[in-house]
Amino acid sequence: MSGIDCRFIRNFCIIAHIDHGKSTLADRLLEYTGTVAQRQMKEQLLDNMELERARGITIKARAVAMRLTRDGQTYELNLIDTPGHVDFQYEVSRSLACCEGALLLVDAFQGVEAQTMANAYAAMEHELAIIPVINKIDLKQARPDEVTEEMEHSLGIDPADVQRVSAKAGLGIEQLIDAILRRVPPPEGNPDAPLQAMVFDSHYDEYRGAITYVRIMNGRVRKGQRIQFLRGGTTHEVLELGQFVPHQQARTELHAGQVGYLICNIKSLEQVHIGDTVATVGSQVAPLPGYQQPKRMVYCGLYPSDGQDFTELRDALEKLSINDPSFEFVPESSEALGFGFRCGFLGLLHMEIVQQRLEQEADVDLVQTAPNVTYEVVTKRGQTLEIHRPQEVPDAGEIEEFRQPIVRVNFILPTEYIGPVMKLCQERRGVQQGTEYLSPTRAMVTYDLPLAEVIYDLHDKLKSATRGYGTMDYELVGYFPADLVRMDILVNGNRVDALSVICNRGDADRRGRAVVKKLKTEIDRHMFEVAVQAAIGSRVIARETVPAIRKNVTAKCYGGDITRKRKLWAKQREGKKRMKSIGQVDIPQKAFMAVLTTGDER
Amino acid sequence: MQVPEERLGTIAPPSVARLSSIGSSGEAPERLGTIAPPGKAEPRAVYVHVPFCRHRCGYCNFTVLAGRDDLAPAYLEAVEREMSWLGQPRPVDTLFVGGGTPTHLEPAQLARLLDRTSHWFPPTGRYEWSVEANPGDLRAEILDTLAAAGVTRLSLGVQSFDDRKLRTLERDHRAEQVLRVLDAARPRFESLSLDLIFAVPGESLDDWQRDLRMAVAAPIDHVSCYGLTFERGTRFWGRRLRGQLAPLAEELELKMYELAIDTLESAEFEHYEVSNFARPGHRCRHNEVYWRGEPYFAVGPGAARYVGGRREVNHRSTTNWLQRVRAGQSPVAESEQLAPEPSARERMVLGLRMRAGVDRDDFQRRTGYELDRLLGEQLPLLVDWGLLADDGRRIRLTRRGLVVSDTIWPRLL
After folding, report:
1. Does one domain contain both A41 and A139?
2. ipTM, 2 dp
3. Does A576 lie at the interface with B, CB-CB under 8 angstroms?
């Protein structure tokens, strides 16, 4: 049944802000086309990692092939899921490159959000046919007319094209399917030309190795064929190919226009590059355009807790990187924390996901240092250094120029919060780029901001400044010079390298005071006084003292029940183990994040 | 990916490094010889718990039943039954009947309890038999009952000689009662002990000084001083959370503790354990059994025993304990067989609570572990910080170590 004419194939994705109902709509389409009779398997089929369900975010793309018959003609609908978060912009762009159409899904109450805009722009740049969809029209608070107006103002959508549905109640699904068949163009591509397939995603199967997701652009791929990855430079034999319906269904062939998977006995996802081109061995076809190396924007140190094995952590990281090639790690050592790894992530969300997976899947107890962005230093000798951690910053005398990444941030928010959000951005050295009214009540505010300010706490601050109604998205603008310094933290005179941060000189005093204050609360009292200092070079800019314990004695006869007491002490000892000892001072893991304290109570 | 394997080989946590420098491989310290594990010997001590009280004081988190005197007959039956499970009488050197308030029982009930106790645990030689008593309900009849049964030591829950402080503590007796009880008890018992509590909300250093002077002047042989602690599950805990009770400042509490030590020591009371003081020859030998890590039997709700190297605690709910014993089921709620090393470490901690400290040779003889190897880097570190004193033979707490001792124990376990 795989030999279907290109004219009857529709490849599309759904782009939406979190919680606007993407997964529910996908389920409904699967149900309508009879791909899934009822809610089998998991609640929402497209999000198949536990973590994703917990967060309600689709991190990794998945593709499902659906069949349906209209007027006696069988169609193949391939739904390619796209990650919504900014951290995965590149992955999104590769998924979009495999589609001819996109459903632009907007919540009938929430309206257009920052993520909707970012992804809609991306879809338009890829020249996809956009089908605007307003979801949740059955909600009491639904305001579909206003939302239509917002879509018209912000994205130039023709109100006549808007489909109104309720994915939850199953309203408007049939008309939506009709719109997909009618308005999404069939894929182009020549099944008889040499093979060219775009890798748009991959996942790792413990038994079968890498499962590579491809869109066939030209030609055909068959079982047993020898193929090569043009960028990766490796060759493989196709052991199995097929489509997800939504379970893995083997086929004998995939041809131009189709979407499916390849299994080639590949042992690590490191060999599968998103955006790579699959061709037959010996073929002279050109690689498909748009390929990029994943760019890590955020770095942090991950160290085993005291009493935990370095090699255990290394094994866990290796296992994880098999599954997630965009995550990078190299060994590093810290005077304070010993041997660990400097890890690079696509963004802050990506970092959190990796860290949670390490803890959940590998049961590794971690000390994480505060995340930092990648800086650039131009030395007096004219060298440009990439700085992944504060310890790498050269002496002040050697620095010609210190540069930081600047991002353009779009905020979408109710107009009454424009003031607070502008204040928020100005405090973070933002430069306003524009304000645009989407409707009488909602606006888009654009700022250029240092990425470092964005990753620390801007999202949380935005949520509290707008009572949860504001959303944001950002993209990298470039690296620009700034007056940056490295601030060090000393505990009883010992510099704790893992606590150093890079910050703006003008903020250093305030941040230094805030950090040592925070550390004072994080570090338990010891049997001796503990001094916590912040310093730039040799100049101390802030100091706090954790006083020594004066009295800690249970002057209580606990009868013969010694077990209870011993268990209590044993628990305290376990707690101590989970800390890092620096010159006899026990520093809890949480404290290594204390340097993120910005001291906003200015 | 490159991992600095060769460098890893030379880096080890300081504890391991130090240990290996004194000849260990960094693994668990080996035990020397084939000495019987501690606590495996036949116990020579017994604890009996009596849960009844007239009322529950706000700070108390012991196994206590207030206003359920109706359960006393059932309790007595169950105690006898639990004792009978020993199969045969077990001679002991020390007995301790605690609570609750053992003297809250009717004289006949108390007599029966003591009789059954001495039947199943015959006191031998120069035995010590302590009973806890509440000055509030201690009639002459009860004192006679105790003396007639062979009790040698009375431990009185005095807590204070200050009526205001007693009210705060929700005690049901008054200071003048205490003095009368002491006079009445003195001729009947070899040893009299009293408990005092300090750092009670509202208490000043002078208030505490007065309590200590009263204690020193009283006809007693032994004092236990406890700083008030707020325990989960007590009324005081809740009142503190609601801000109705304010704990004293740490610095003041420290001064009170030090004042107790100084006052009692200068009155010829030996400070022999963190919170215990005795005139010569009047240490509580039963409690010393606990602190030396020696075995003991136990009977009654919430009672803790150490028999055959196993630490057990009976169900803490009296009714639960009653039902289980009646049904012929084990009353044990928690049970733990101590491995040799944890057992040795525990003995170290308990031993250090005694001011005489721990003797290296004695420790090795009893536990099979060499003390220095067992403690590794901790010992020199704690000595360095001035918390432990080491004369080459014995390790003991310094005065400074004494007041922060709860911070030391986790390091030694």
Report:
1. yes
2. 0.71
3. yes
